[in-house]
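Journal club prep — side note

Before the paper discussion, L.F. wants everyone to see what a predicted structure for a comparable chain looks like in token form. Sequence:
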Amino acid sequence: MASISEIVVVIGEVQRSWSFLENLFIHSEEVKKELPQESIKFVSIDQEVKTILADGFKHQKALDFCIQPHILPGLEKVQENLTVCEKALNEFMDSKRMAFPRFYFVSPADLLDILSNGNQPVKVMIHMPKIISALDTLELLEEGVRPFAKGMKSSVGIEYVAFTVELKLIGKVEVYLQDVINTMRISLRDISKKSLKMFAEKPKADWIVMDPAMVTLLINNCQWVILCEGAFGNYPKDNKSVEKAYTKQCDDLTELIKMVQTDLTKPVR
């Protein structure tokens, strides 16, 4: 009975580890490429586990299966080899986290799924909210093996921001995710520059609905600082400059109050 109990415990642990690692070492091209020796070793482990499980299915009765002298040593050997593969996998994941630190905020299970599907960006999109805060997904344009990213969709409301530069999701997953972050920064900077120019050319009510909320809030604060600094700077020449700036600000706020009373879309509001 003691042997049966011990074998049941060990075979349960082996099955959990084996089923977890099988999808990575057998089906993930990324893992097989990064861990070639462990992947080759896992093929033999996979065969051993299947042989033991097939033997158990053949005997049906636990006692008949467990009294076989080779079962427990075989399971212990498999368990030891699985531990080696799991350690190599953890070291592999740590290297990916160091290459792309945002992976530290992703659970090990999600990270493994990301790495397993790294060469299929479409399947990685489900994890984007975990990688980049407030981002729901990227808009992808399927062309050839790897898609282009055209823009990003917010998980807050229905806001969409188009990228100002072309981005093809190529290379390893940690490489093209870093490219996504760089492209986000470049695009928001380009949109902000354009918005700063348009602020001076359009009525505020028209300008405020043009750009993403993040950009609108930034440029609005920039313009407030520019207005105040300009008023103080001109005061020696025009002692009414601060009063004029105050009036301008009151007029802008009044215009915004009137806008809020109308039917606005959720991102604009």
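L.F.'s comment for the group: The longest helix spans residues 71-99. Keep this in mind when we get to the figures.
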